[in-house]
Amino acid sequence: MDWFELLFAAEVAVGGLLSGVMYALVAIGFVLIYKTSGVLNFAQGAMVLFAALTFVNLVERGVPFWVSVAVTLAAMTALGFGIERTVLRPLANRSPMTLFMATLGLSYVIEGAAQLIWGTQVHRLDLGISNAPFEVWGIFISTFDLVAAAIAAALVAALTAFFRFTHTGLAFRAVADDQFAALAVGLRLDRIWATVWAAAGVVALVAGLLWGARLGVQFSLSLIVLKALPVLVLGGFDSILGAIVAGLVIGATEKLAEVYIGPFFGGGIEGWFAYAVALIVLLVRPSGLFGQKRVERY
Amino acid sequence: MSVLLEFRDVEASYGGAIAALHGVSLSLAEGEFAALLGANGAGKTTLLKAASNLLPAERGRISAGHILFDGQDVTAHDPGDHLRRGLVPVLEGRRCFKNLTIEENLITGAIGRGLRRTSIAQGLEQVYDLFPRLKERRKVAAGLTSGGEQQMAAIGRGLMARPRLFVLDEPSMGLAPLVVTEIFEALTRLNVETGLTLLVAEQNSAVALKHAHNATVIENGRSVLQGRAADLAARSDIRDSYLGGASV
Ligand SMILES: Nc1ncnc2c1ncn2[C@@H]1O[C@H](COP(=O)(O)OP(=O)(O)OP(=O)(O)O)[C@@H](O)[C@H]1O
Ligand SMILES: [Mg+2]
Protein backbone atom coordinates (compact mmCIF):
# COMPACT_ATOMS: atom_id res chain seq x y z
CA MET A 1 0.00 0.00 0.00
CA ASP A 2 1.38 3.40 -0.79
CA TRP A 3 0.93 6.50 1.32
CA PHE A 4 -2.23 7.73 -0.36
CA GLU A 5 -3.97 4.41 -0.04
CA LEU A 6 -3.09 4.36 3.64
CA LEU A 7 -4.49 7.85 4.12
CA PHE A 8 -7.64 6.82 2.35
CA ALA A 9 -8.03 3.73 4.53
CA ALA A 10 -7.53 5.88 7.63
CA GLU A 11 -10.18 8.29 6.41
CA VAL A 12 -12.65 5.48 5.84
CA ALA A 13 -11.90 4.06 9.29
CA VAL A 14 -12.35 7.42 11.01
CA GLY A 15 -15.64 8.01 9.20
CA GLY A 16 -16.72 4.54 10.30
CA LEU A 17 -15.69 5.14 13.90
CA LEU A 18 -17.72 8.31 14.02
CA SER A 19 -20.85 6.63 12.70
CA GLY A 20 -20.09 3.84 15.15
CA VAL A 21 -20.56 6.37 17.93
CA MET A 22 -24.16 6.71 16.78
CA TYR A 23 -24.69 2.95 16.84
CA ALA A 24 -23.28 2.93 20.35
CA LEU A 25 -25.70 5.64 21.39
CA VAL A 26 -28.70 3.60 20.35
CA ALA A 27 -27.24 0.46 21.91
CA ILE A 28 -26.71 2.20 25.26
CA GLY A 29 -30.44 2.84 25.47
CA PHE A 30 -30.96 -0.92 25.20
CA VAL A 31 -28.27 -1.73 27.75
CA LEU A 32 -29.71 0.59 30.41
CA ILE A 33 -33.04 -1.18 30.38
CA TYR A 34 -31.68 -4.67 29.87
CA LYS A 35 -29.26 -4.39 32.78
CA THR A 36 -31.88 -3.42 35.34
CA SER A 37 -34.95 -5.29 34.22
CA GLY A 38 -33.74 -8.00 31.85
CA VAL A 39 -36.05 -6.62 29.16
CA LEU A 40 -34.77 -6.39 25.61
CA ASN A 41 -36.58 -3.21 24.67
CA PHE A 42 -37.33 -3.46 20.99
CA ALA A 43 -39.16 -0.14 21.22
CA GLN A 44 -35.89 1.77 21.64
CA GLY A 45 -35.86 2.54 17.91
CA ALA A 46 -39.43 3.81 18.02
CA MET A 47 -38.46 6.00 20.96
CA VAL A 48 -35.62 7.47 18.89
CA LEU A 49 -38.07 8.23 16.10
CA PHE A 50 -40.64 9.66 18.47
CA ALA A 51 -38.06 11.99 20.03
CA ALA A 52 -36.75 13.23 16.69
CA LEU A 53 -40.26 13.77 15.27
CA THR A 54 -41.45 15.63 18.33
CA PHE A 55 -38.42 17.89 18.29
CA VAL A 56 -38.47 18.65 14.59
CA ASN A 57 -42.19 19.44 14.59
CA LEU A 58 -41.81 21.82 17.50
CA VAL A 59 -38.95 23.62 15.77
CA GLU A 60 -40.90 23.82 12.50
CA ARG A 61 -43.78 25.42 14.39
CA GLY A 62 -41.45 28.18 15.50
CA VAL A 63 -40.69 26.99 19.03
CA PRO A 64 -37.16 28.13 20.00
CA PHE A 65 -34.43 25.48 19.82
CA TRP A 66 -33.72 25.04 23.54
CA VAL A 67 -37.39 25.17 24.47
CA SER A 68 -37.99 22.37 21.98
CA VAL A 69 -35.17 20.38 23.52
CA ALA A 70 -36.68 20.87 26.98
CA VAL A 71 -40.21 19.97 25.86
CA THR A 72 -39.03 16.87 24.01
CA LEU A 73 -36.98 15.87 27.03
CA ALA A 74 -40.06 16.17 29.20
CA ALA A 75 -42.11 14.20 26.68
CA MET A 76 -39.52 11.39 26.56
CA THR A 77 -39.33 11.23 30.34
CA ALA A 78 -43.11 11.07 30.55
CA LEU A 79 -43.14 8.38 27.88
CA GLY A 80 -40.58 6.36 29.85
CA PHE A 81 -42.54 6.63 33.11
CA GLY A 82 -45.73 5.81 31.25
CA ILE A 83 -44.31 2.67 29.66
CA GLU A 84 -43.01 1.43 32.98
CA ARG A 85 -46.37 2.00 34.63
CA THR A 86 -48.68 0.63 31.98
CA VAL A 87 -46.68 -2.09 30.28
CA LEU A 88 -43.87 -3.36 32.48
CA ARG A 89 -45.30 -3.22 35.95
CA PRO A 90 -48.33 -5.37 35.12
CA LEU A 91 -45.99 -7.85 33.42
CA ALA A 92 -43.42 -8.07 36.23
CA ASN A 93 -42.12 -11.61 36.87
CA ARG A 94 -43.18 -12.78 33.40
CA SER A 95 -40.83 -14.59 31.05
CA PRO A 96 -38.29 -12.57 29.03
CA MET A 97 -40.08 -13.66 25.84
CA THR A 98 -43.38 -12.18 27.04
CA LEU A 99 -41.64 -8.92 27.87
CA PHE A 100 -39.84 -8.82 24.53
CA MET A 101 -43.11 -9.35 22.68
CA ALA A 102 -44.66 -6.59 24.76
CA THR A 103 -41.93 -4.15 23.70
CA LEU A 104 -42.26 -5.29 20.09
CA GLY A 105 -45.95 -4.39 20.25
CA LEU A 106 -45.06 -1.21 22.03
CA SER A 107 -42.75 -0.13 19.22
CA TYR A 108 -45.70 -0.27 16.79
CA VAL A 109 -47.91 1.64 19.18
CA ILE A 110 -45.30 4.37 19.56
CA GLU A 111 -44.71 4.57 15.81
CA GLY A 112 -48.43 4.70 15.20
CA ALA A 113 -48.88 7.40 17.80
CA ALA A 114 -46.03 9.41 16.31
CA GLN A 115 -47.65 9.12 12.88
CA LEU A 116 -51.03 10.22 14.23
CA ILE A 117 -49.63 13.19 16.07
CA TRP A 118 -46.96 14.38 13.67
CA GLY A 119 -47.88 13.00 10.25
CA THR A 120 -45.75 10.98 7.86
CA GLN A 121 -43.72 13.45 5.84
CA VAL A 122 -39.92 13.50 5.89
CA HIS A 123 -38.39 16.42 7.76
CA ARG A 124 -35.03 18.07 7.47
CA LEU A 125 -33.42 18.67 10.82
CA ASP A 126 -30.77 21.33 11.16
CA LEU A 127 -28.99 21.46 14.50
CA GLY A 128 -26.81 24.33 13.35
CA ILE A 129 -23.70 22.19 13.32
CA SER A 130 -21.48 22.76 10.29
CA ASN A 131 -21.16 19.87 7.88
CA ALA A 132 -17.92 21.09 6.34
CA PRO A 133 -15.07 18.59 6.47
CA PHE A 134 -11.71 19.65 7.86
CA GLU A 135 -8.30 18.20 7.43
CA VAL A 136 -5.99 16.63 10.02
CA TRP A 137 -2.69 15.13 8.80
CA GLY A 138 -4.13 14.75 5.35
CA ILE A 139 -7.30 13.00 6.54
CA PHE A 140 -10.67 14.65 5.97
CA ILE A 141 -13.02 14.51 8.92
CA SER A 142 -16.65 15.63 8.99
CA THR A 143 -17.20 18.40 11.54
CA PHE A 144 -20.72 17.22 12.15
CA ASP A 145 -19.62 13.67 12.92
CA LEU A 146 -16.97 14.94 15.28
CA VAL A 147 -19.38 17.20 17.17
CA ALA A 148 -21.91 14.36 17.30
CA ALA A 149 -19.24 12.10 18.78
CA ALA A 150 -18.38 14.75 21.37
CA ILE A 151 -22.04 15.10 22.36
CA ALA A 152 -22.37 11.34 22.65
CA ALA A 153 -19.21 11.19 24.75
CA ALA A 154 -20.54 13.91 27.05
CA LEU A 155 -23.79 11.99 27.47
CA VAL A 156 -21.95 8.79 28.33
CA ALA A 157 -19.76 10.67 30.81
CA ALA A 158 -22.84 12.17 32.46
CA LEU A 159 -24.53 8.76 32.69
CA THR A 160 -21.41 7.17 34.11
CA ALA A 161 -21.07 9.88 36.75
CA PHE A 162 -24.74 9.47 37.64
CA PHE A 163 -24.40 5.74 38.17
CA ARG A 164 -21.10 6.04 40.01
CA PHE A 165 -21.78 8.91 42.39
CA THR A 166 -25.48 9.13 43.21
CA HIS A 167 -27.62 6.98 45.47
CA THR A 168 -30.09 6.39 42.66
CA GLY A 169 -27.18 5.21 40.53
CA LEU A 170 -26.03 2.88 43.29
CA ALA A 171 -29.54 1.47 43.61
CA PHE A 172 -29.57 0.98 39.83
CA ARG A 173 -26.35 -1.04 39.96
CA ALA A 174 -27.70 -3.08 42.86
CA VAL A 175 -30.85 -3.98 40.94
CA ALA A 176 -28.76 -4.86 37.90
CA ASP A 177 -26.66 -7.15 40.09
CA ASP A 178 -29.35 -9.09 41.96
CA GLN A 179 -32.98 -8.15 41.59
CA PHE A 180 -34.33 -10.38 44.33
CA ALA A 181 -31.76 -9.17 46.84
CA ALA A 182 -32.58 -5.59 45.85
CA LEU A 183 -36.24 -6.27 46.58
CA ALA A 184 -35.35 -7.74 49.97
CA VAL A 185 -33.14 -4.75 50.77
CA GLY A 186 -36.14 -2.50 50.21
CA LEU A 187 -34.94 -0.73 47.06
CA ARG A 188 -37.92 0.66 45.20
CA LEU A 189 -37.71 -1.30 41.98
CA ASP A 190 -40.62 0.49 40.32
CA ARG A 191 -39.00 3.91 40.84
CA ILE A 192 -35.66 2.64 39.61
CA TRP A 193 -37.24 1.15 36.49
CA ALA A 194 -39.12 4.35 35.82
CA THR A 195 -35.86 6.31 36.13
CA VAL A 196 -34.12 3.93 33.78
CA TRP A 197 -36.87 4.22 31.18
CA ALA A 198 -36.67 7.96 31.47
CA ALA A 199 -32.88 7.81 31.02
CA ALA A 200 -33.36 5.58 27.97
CA GLY A 201 -35.77 8.23 26.69
CA VAL A 202 -33.10 10.89 27.07
CA VAL A 203 -30.57 8.72 25.24
CA ALA A 204 -33.17 8.19 22.53
CA LEU A 205 -33.62 11.95 22.23
CA VAL A 206 -29.91 12.57 21.72
CA ALA A 207 -29.65 9.69 19.27
CA GLY A 208 -32.76 10.87 17.45
CA LEU A 209 -31.47 14.41 17.02
CA LEU A 210 -28.05 13.36 15.80
CA TRP A 211 -29.30 10.62 13.46
CA GLY A 212 -32.16 12.81 12.30
CA ALA A 213 -29.78 15.63 11.41
CA ARG A 214 -27.67 13.19 9.42
CA LEU A 215 -30.32 11.25 7.55
CA GLY A 216 -33.45 13.35 7.83
CA VAL A 217 -36.27 12.65 10.24
CA GLN A 218 -38.41 9.90 8.76
CA PHE A 219 -39.95 6.61 9.71
CA SER A 220 -36.94 4.57 8.70
CA LEU A 221 -35.25 6.15 11.72
CA SER A 222 -36.86 3.51 13.93
CA LEU A 223 -35.00 0.89 11.92
CA ILE A 224 -31.74 1.85 13.59
CA VAL A 225 -32.64 -0.77 16.18
CA LEU A 226 -31.52 -3.17 13.50
CA LYS A 227 -28.09 -1.51 13.55
CA ALA A 228 -27.98 -1.65 17.33
CA LEU A 229 -28.70 -5.38 17.60
CA PRO A 230 -25.38 -6.60 16.18
CA VAL A 231 -23.63 -4.01 18.34
CA LEU A 232 -25.33 -5.51 21.38
CA VAL A 233 -24.42 -9.03 20.40
CA LEU A 234 -20.80 -8.03 19.95
CA GLY A 235 -20.50 -5.89 23.08
CA GLY A 236 -22.74 -7.87 25.39
CA PHE A 237 -26.29 -6.85 26.28
CA ASP A 238 -25.42 -5.72 29.78
CA SER A 239 -22.30 -3.61 29.27
CA ILE A 240 -22.29 0.11 28.51
CA LEU A 241 -18.57 -0.03 27.80
CA GLY A 242 -19.27 -3.01 25.53
CA ALA A 243 -21.87 -1.01 23.62
CA ILE A 244 -19.39 1.80 23.03
CA VAL A 245 -16.50 -0.39 21.93
CA ALA A 246 -18.70 -2.62 19.79
CA GLY A 247 -20.36 0.41 18.21
CA LEU A 248 -16.96 1.75 17.20
CA VAL A 249 -15.70 -1.64 15.99
CA ILE A 250 -18.79 -2.29 13.89
CA GLY A 251 -18.86 1.25 12.55
CA ALA A 252 -15.23 1.09 11.41
CA THR A 253 -15.21 -2.49 10.11
CA GLU A 254 -18.40 -2.18 8.12
CA LYS A 255 -17.08 0.89 6.29
CA LEU A 256 -13.70 -0.73 5.65
CA ALA A 257 -15.39 -3.92 4.54
CA GLU A 258 -17.63 -1.97 2.18
CA VAL A 259 -14.61 -0.37 0.55
CA TYR A 260 -12.19 -3.30 0.47
CA ILE A 261 -14.30 -6.47 0.43
CA GLY A 262 -17.43 -4.95 -1.04
CA PRO A 263 -16.32 -5.06 -4.66
CA PHE A 264 -15.96 -8.85 -4.48
CA PHE A 265 -19.64 -9.11 -3.54
CA GLY A 266 -20.73 -6.43 -5.95
CA GLY A 267 -20.99 -3.86 -3.14
CA GLY A 268 -23.77 -3.19 -0.66
CA ILE A 269 -22.33 -5.32 2.10
CA GLU A 270 -22.60 -2.51 4.64
CA GLY A 271 -26.19 -3.55 5.26
CA TRP A 272 -25.46 -7.09 6.41
CA PHE A 273 -21.80 -7.06 7.37
CA ALA A 274 -22.52 -6.21 11.01
CA TYR A 275 -24.82 -9.23 11.21
CA ALA A 276 -22.10 -11.50 9.86
CA VAL A 277 -19.79 -10.22 12.59
CA ALA A 278 -22.52 -10.72 15.20
CA LEU A 279 -23.11 -14.28 14.02
CA ILE A 280 -19.46 -15.16 14.40
CA VAL A 281 -19.37 -13.61 17.88
CA LEU A 282 -22.46 -15.62 18.86
CA LEU A 283 -20.70 -18.81 17.85
CA VAL A 284 -17.43 -18.00 19.60
CA ARG A 285 -18.49 -16.02 22.65
CA PRO A 286 -22.24 -15.87 23.24
CA SER A 287 -22.00 -13.35 26.09
CA GLY A 288 -20.25 -10.83 23.85
CA LEU A 289 -16.90 -9.13 24.36
CA PHE A 290 -17.82 -7.42 27.64
CA GLY A 291 -21.02 -9.14 28.74
CA GLN A 292 -21.19 -10.92 32.05
CA LYS A 293 -21.17 -14.66 31.89
CA ARG A 294 -24.10 -15.98 33.88
CA VAL A 295 -22.73 -17.46 37.08
CA GLU A 296 -24.51 -20.62 38.16
CA ARG A 297 -26.06 -20.37 41.58
CA TYR A 298 -24.41 -23.01 43.75
CA MET B 1 -43.30 -8.74 76.69
CA SER B 2 -45.17 -7.82 73.56
CA VAL B 3 -45.32 -10.10 70.56
CA LEU B 4 -43.47 -8.70 67.54
CA LEU B 5 -43.98 -11.45 65.00
CA GLU B 6 -46.55 -14.20 64.98
CA PHE B 7 -47.13 -17.12 62.61
CA ARG B 8 -50.57 -18.73 62.98
CA ASP B 9 -51.03 -22.11 61.26
CA VAL B 10 -49.25 -20.85 58.19
CA GLU B 11 -49.55 -22.89 55.00
CA ALA B 12 -47.73 -21.85 51.84
CA SER B 13 -47.23 -23.15 48.33
CA TYR B 14 -45.24 -22.35 45.21
CA GLY B 15 -46.78 -21.98 41.77
CA GLY B 16 -50.19 -22.89 43.19
CA ALA B 17 -49.24 -26.55 43.38
CA ILE B 18 -46.08 -27.32 45.33
CA ALA B 19 -47.01 -27.12 49.02
CA ALA B 20 -44.05 -26.16 51.19
CA LEU B 21 -45.65 -25.33 54.55
CA HIS B 22 -48.49 -27.30 56.13
CA GLY B 23 -49.15 -25.42 59.34
CA VAL B 24 -46.46 -23.60 61.21
CA SER B 25 -47.14 -21.65 64.38
CA LEU B 26 -44.58 -19.60 66.16
CA SER B 27 -44.51 -16.36 68.03
CA LEU B 28 -41.64 -14.09 68.80
CA ALA B 29 -41.51 -11.57 71.63
CA GLU B 30 -39.68 -8.29 71.51
CA GLY B 31 -36.05 -8.74 72.57
CA GLU B 32 -36.10 -12.48 71.97
CA PHE B 33 -33.39 -14.43 70.12
CA ALA B 34 -35.17 -17.35 68.49
CA ALA B 35 -33.83 -20.18 66.36
CA LEU B 36 -35.73 -21.97 63.61
CA LEU B 37 -34.35 -25.45 63.08
CA GLY B 38 -35.02 -28.10 60.49
CA ALA B 39 -33.36 -30.33 57.92
CA ASN B 40 -32.98 -29.60 54.19
CA GLY B 41 -36.30 -28.78 52.60
CA ALA B 42 -38.13 -28.52 55.93
CA GLY B 43 -39.49 -25.11 54.95
CA LYS B 44 -37.30 -22.67 56.90
CA THR B 45 -36.54 -20.40 53.96
CA THR B 46 -40.15 -20.43 52.81
CA LEU B 47 -41.33 -19.40 56.26
CA LEU B 48 -38.87 -16.52 56.52
CA LYS B 49 -39.66 -15.26 53.03
CA ALA B 50 -43.34 -15.41 53.86
CA ALA B 51 -42.73 -13.14 56.85
CA SER B 52 -41.27 -10.41 54.60
CA ASN B 53 -43.92 -11.03 51.95
CA LEU B 54 -41.19 -12.10 49.53
CA LEU B 55 -43.03 -15.23 48.35
CA PRO B 56 -44.96 -13.52 45.51
CA ALA B 57 -41.65 -12.61 43.86
CA GLU B 58 -40.95 -16.38 43.68
CA ARG B 59 -44.45 -17.25 42.54
CA GLY B 60 -45.35 -18.51 45.96
CA ARG B 61 -48.09 -17.50 48.36
CA ILE B 62 -49.52 -18.04 51.79
CA SER B 63 -52.49 -20.34 51.21
CA ALA B 64 -53.85 -20.47 54.76
CA GLY B 65 -53.19 -18.98 58.17
CA HIS B 66 -51.78 -15.59 59.05
CA ILE B 67 -48.50 -13.87 59.70
CA LEU B 68 -48.65 -10.75 61.83
CA PHE B 69 -45.77 -8.33 62.17
CA ASP B 70 -46.34 -5.75 64.86
CA GLY B 71 -50.02 -6.70 64.82
CA GLN B 72 -50.53 -6.26 61.05
CA ASP B 73 -51.04 -8.91 58.41
CA VAL B 74 -47.83 -9.03 56.36
CA THR B 75 -49.49 -9.81 53.03
CA ALA B 76 -50.95 -6.31 52.96
CA HIS B 77 -47.53 -4.69 52.40
CA ASP B 78 -44.50 -4.86 50.10
CA PRO B 79 -41.20 -6.29 51.34
CA GLY B 80 -39.83 -2.74 51.20
CA ASP B 81 -42.62 -1.43 53.43
CA HIS B 82 -41.88 -4.14 55.98
CA LEU B 83 -38.23 -3.23 55.89
CA ARG B 84 -39.00 0.42 56.51
CA ARG B 85 -41.12 -0.63 59.49
CA GLY B 86 -38.17 -2.57 60.90
CA LEU B 87 -38.56 -6.14 59.61
CA VAL B 88 -35.22 -6.73 57.90
CA PRO B 89 -34.30 -10.02 56.21
CA VAL B 90 -30.84 -11.42 55.48
CA LEU B 91 -31.36 -13.90 52.68
CA GLU B 92 -30.12 -17.44 52.40
CA GLY B 93 -26.82 -17.62 50.52
CA ARG B 94 -25.96 -14.01 51.53
CA ARG B 95 -26.93 -12.54 48.16
CA CYS B 96 -24.45 -9.66 48.30
CA PHE B 97 -24.34 -7.42 45.25
CA LYS B 98 -21.21 -9.00 43.82
CA ASN B 99 -20.15 -6.15 41.53
CA LEU B 100 -20.56 -3.53 44.25
CA THR B 101 -17.88 -2.88 46.84
CA ILE B 102 -18.45 -3.97 50.43
CA GLU B 103 -19.18 -0.39 51.45
CA GLU B 104 -21.58 0.14 48.56
CA ASN B 105 -23.36 -3.05 49.63
CA LEU B 106 -23.76 -1.64 53.10
CA ILE B 107 -25.04 1.68 51.77
CA THR B 108 -27.77 -0.01 49.71
CA GLY B 109 -29.24 -1.25 53.00
CA ALA B 110 -29.60 2.32 54.19
CA ILE B 111 -30.95 3.56 50.85
CA GLY B 112 -33.68 0.91 51.04
CA ARG B 113 -34.63 2.25 54.43
CA GLY B 114 -34.64 5.81 53.07
CA LEU B 115 -31.86 7.16 55.29
CA ARG B 116 -29.85 10.34 54.66
CA ARG B 117 -26.11 10.77 54.43
CA THR B 118 -25.40 11.53 58.08
CA SER B 119 -27.32 8.48 59.30
CA ILE B 120 -25.51 6.41 56.68
CA ALA B 121 -22.13 7.51 58.03
CA GLN B 122 -23.26 6.58 61.55
CA GLY B 123 -24.52 3.21 60.39
CA LEU B 124 -21.27 2.43 58.61
CA GLU B 125 -19.34 3.20 61.77
CA GLN B 126 -21.50 0.82 63.80
CA VAL B 127 -21.17 -1.99 61.28
CA TYR B 128 -17.39 -1.56 61.05
CA ASP B 129 -17.24 -1.61 64.82
CA LEU B 130 -19.11 -4.94 64.86
CA PHE B 131 -17.12 -6.46 61.97
CA PRO B 132 -13.71 -4.73 61.78
CA ARG B 133 -12.77 -6.98 58.89
CA LEU B 134 -15.33 -5.26 56.67
CA LYS B 135 -13.61 -1.93 57.19
CA GLU B 136 -10.35 -3.28 55.79
CA ARG B 137 -12.18 -4.73 52.80
CA ARG B 138 -14.58 -1.87 52.21
CA LYS B 139 -13.22 -0.90 48.79
CA VAL B 140 -13.19 -4.47 47.46
CA ALA B 141 -15.95 -5.84 45.19
CA ALA B 142 -18.08 -8.13 47.35
CA GLY B 143 -17.82 -10.94 44.80
CA LEU B 144 -14.07 -11.09 45.41
CA THR B 145 -14.28 -11.42 49.20
CA SER B 146 -14.43 -14.63 51.23
CA GLY B 147 -17.67 -16.36 52.19
CA GLY B 148 -17.35 -15.15 55.76
CA GLU B 149 -16.80 -11.57 54.68
CA GLN B 150 -19.80 -11.78 52.37
CA GLN B 151 -21.95 -13.07 55.21
CA MET B 152 -20.77 -10.22 57.42
CA ALA B 153 -21.51 -7.77 54.61
CA ALA B 154 -25.01 -9.21 54.19
CA ILE B 155 -25.63 -8.87 57.93
CA GLY B 156 -24.12 -5.38 57.90
CA ARG B 157 -26.32 -4.41 54.96
CA GLY B 158 -29.32 -5.50 57.02
CA LEU B 159 -28.15 -3.59 60.08
CA MET B 160 -27.81 -0.41 57.99
CA ALA B 161 -31.60 -0.52 57.69
CA ARG B 162 -31.91 -0.26 61.51
CA PRO B 163 -33.90 -3.42 62.15
CA ARG B 164 -36.30 -3.95 65.03
CA LEU B 165 -36.71 -7.56 63.98
CA PHE B 166 -33.75 -9.14 62.23
CA VAL B 167 -34.51 -12.31 60.28
CA LEU B 168 -31.51 -14.35 59.14
CA ASP B 169 -31.55 -17.43 56.92
CA GLU B 170 -28.70 -19.87 57.58
CA PRO B 171 -25.91 -17.40 58.34
CA SER B 172 -23.54 -20.33 58.99
CA MET B 173 -23.95 -21.86 55.53
CA GLY B 174 -20.62 -23.04 54.14
CA LEU B 175 -18.49 -21.21 56.68
CA ALA B 176 -15.60 -22.38 58.86
CA PRO B 177 -16.50 -23.01 62.53
CA LEU B 178 -14.44 -20.07 63.73
CA VAL B 179 -16.25 -17.66 61.43
CA VAL B 180 -19.62 -19.12 62.43
CA THR B 181 -18.77 -18.48 66.07
CA GLU B 182 -17.71 -14.92 65.27
CA ILE B 183 -20.99 -14.25 63.50
CA PHE B 184 -23.18 -15.73 66.24
CA GLU B 185 -21.26 -13.82 68.87
CA ALA B 186 -21.90 -10.61 66.96
CA LEU B 187 -25.62 -11.47 66.82
CA THR B 188 -25.68 -12.17 70.55
CA ARG B 189 -23.93 -8.88 71.18
CA LEU B 190 -26.59 -7.04 69.17
CA ASN B 191 -29.33 -8.83 71.06
CA VAL B 192 -27.85 -8.08 74.47
CA GLU B 193 -26.60 -4.55 73.87
CA THR B 194 -29.38 -3.11 71.73
CA GLY B 195 -32.28 -5.43 72.51
CA LEU B 196 -32.57 -6.40 68.83
CA THR B 197 -35.11 -9.18 68.25
CA LEU B 198 -33.68 -12.06 66.21
CA LEU B 199 -35.11 -14.96 64.26
CA VAL B 200 -32.39 -17.18 62.82
CA ALA B 201 -32.97 -20.25 60.65
CA GLU B 202 -30.20 -22.81 60.96
CA GLN B 203 -29.25 -26.35 60.08
CA ASN B 204 -26.31 -26.03 62.42
CA SER B 205 -28.45 -26.70 65.47
CA ALA B 206 -25.54 -26.90 67.89
CA VAL B 207 -24.40 -23.35 67.39
CA ALA B 208 -27.93 -21.99 67.09
CA LEU B 209 -29.10 -23.64 70.33
CA LYS B 210 -26.01 -22.40 72.08
CA HIS B 211 -26.78 -18.75 71.33
CA ALA B 212 -30.58 -18.53 71.04
CA HIS B 213 -33.08 -18.31 73.91
CA ASN B 214 -35.81 -20.38 72.30
CA ALA B 215 -36.10 -22.68 69.34
CA THR B 216 -38.75 -24.07 67.03
CA VAL B 217 -38.14 -27.22 65.03
CA ILE B 218 -39.98 -27.69 61.76
CA GLU B 219 -40.22 -30.89 59.80
CA ASN B 220 -41.84 -31.28 56.39
CA GLY B 221 -43.48 -27.89 56.66
CA ARG B 222 -44.94 -28.36 60.15
CA SER B 223 -43.75 -27.03 63.46
CA VAL B 224 -43.20 -30.15 65.55
CA LEU B 225 -41.36 -28.97 68.61
CA GLN B 226 -40.85 -25.81 70.56
CA GLY B 227 -38.99 -24.92 73.71
CA ARG B 228 -36.13 -23.25 75.46
CA ALA B 229 -32.89 -23.65 73.54
CA ALA B 230 -31.02 -25.02 76.55
CA ASP B 231 -33.63 -27.74 77.11
CA LEU B 232 -33.64 -28.80 73.47
CA ALA B 233 -29.86 -28.85 73.35
CA ALA B 234 -29.78 -31.26 76.28
CA ARG B 235 -31.97 -33.85 74.55
CA SER B 236 -29.92 -35.87 72.10
CA ASP B 237 -33.02 -37.75 70.86
CA ILE B 238 -34.26 -34.52 69.27
CA ARG B 239 -31.06 -34.09 67.36
CA ASP B 240 -31.27 -37.56 66.02
CA SER B 241 -34.91 -37.59 64.98
CA TYR B 242 -35.47 -34.08 63.67
CA LEU B 243 -32.18 -32.55 62.77
CA GLY B 244 -30.62 -35.32 60.76
CA GLY B 245 -28.30 -36.20 63.62
CA ALA B 246 -26.27 -33.05 63.09
CA SER B 247 -23.21 -33.47 65.27
CA VAL B 248 -22.29 -30.93 67.91
N1 LIG C 1 -38.99 -21.19 44.51
C1 LIG C 1 -39.51 -22.42 44.76
N2 LIG C 1 -40.35 -22.99 43.86
C2 LIG C 1 -40.89 -24.21 44.12
N3 LIG C 1 -40.65 -24.93 45.23
C3 LIG C 1 -39.82 -24.42 46.16
C4 LIG C 1 -39.21 -23.14 45.98
N4 LIG C 1 -38.45 -22.89 47.06
C5 LIG C 1 -38.58 -23.96 47.88
N5 LIG C 1 -39.40 -24.89 47.34
C6 LIG C 1 -39.80 -26.16 47.97
O1 LIG C 1 -40.36 -25.89 49.22
C7 LIG C 1 -39.91 -26.83 50.21
C8 LIG C 1 -39.28 -26.08 51.37
O2 LIG C 1 -38.08 -25.46 50.92
P1 LIG C 1 -37.27 -24.41 51.78
O3 LIG C 1 -36.27 -23.81 50.88
O4 LIG C 1 -38.21 -23.52 52.47
O5 LIG C 1 -36.56 -25.36 52.84
P2 LIG C 1 -35.37 -25.04 53.84
O6 LIG C 1 -35.80 -25.56 55.17
O7 LIG C 1 -34.99 -23.62 53.76
O8 LIG C 1 -34.21 -25.96 53.29
P3 LIG C 1 -32.63 -25.71 53.27
O9 LIG C 1 -32.14 -26.05 54.63
O10 LIG C 1 -32.14 -26.67 52.26
O11 LIG C 1 -32.40 -24.29 52.90
C9 LIG C 1 -38.95 -27.75 49.50
O12 LIG C 1 -39.64 -28.94 49.18
C10 LIG C 1 -38.57 -27.02 48.25
O13 LIG C 1 -38.33 -27.90 47.20
MG1 LIG D 1 -33.33 -22.66 53.27
From TrEMBL, chain A:
Localization terms from the record: Cell membrane
Keywords for the protein's UniProt record, in alphabetical order: Amino-acid transport, Cell membrane, Membrane, Transmembrane, Transmembrane helix, Transport
Recorded topology in the membrane: Multi-pass membrane protein
Protein's GO biological process: amino acid transport
CDD domains in UniProt: TM_PBP1_LivH_like (cd06582)
Record has Transport as a keyword: yes
GO molecular function annotations of the record: transmembrane transporter activity
InterPro entries hit by this protein: ABC_transp_permease (IPR001851), BCAA_transport_permease (IPR052157)
Residues passing through the membrane, by range: 6-32, 39-59, 65-87, 99-118, 138-163, 195-217, 229-252, 264-284
Major subcellular site: membrane
Cellular component, GO annotation: plasma membrane
Protein family per UniProt: Belongs to the binding-protein-dependent transport system permease family. LivHM subfamily.
Protein name, per record: Branched-chain amino acid ABC transporter permease
UniProt lineage: Bacteria, Pseudomonadati, Pseudomonadota, Alphaproteobacteria, Rhodobacterales
TrEMBL record, chain B:
Keyword Ribosomal protein: no
ABC transporter domain: residues covered: 5-245
Organism: Gemmobacter aquaticus
Alphabetized Gene3D superfamilies for the sequence: P-loop containing nucleotide triphosphate hydrolases
Keyword vocabulary terms for this entry: Amino-acid transport, ATP-binding, Nucleotide-binding, Transport
SMART domains from the UniProt entry: AAA
Molecular functions (GO terms): ATP binding; ATP hydrolysis activity; branched-chain amino acid transmembrane transporter activity
Coiled-coil positions: none
CDD domains referenced in this protein's UniProt entry, alphabetically: ABC_TM1139_LivF_branched
Keyword Cell membrane included in the entry's annotation: no
Family: Belongs to the ABC transporter superfamily.
InterPro entries, alphabetized: AAA+_ATPase, ABC_transporter-like_ATP-bd, BCAA_Transport_ATP-bd_LivF, P-loop_NTPase
Name the UniProt record assigns to this protein: ABC transporter ATP-binding protein
A GO biological process held by the record: L-amino acid transport
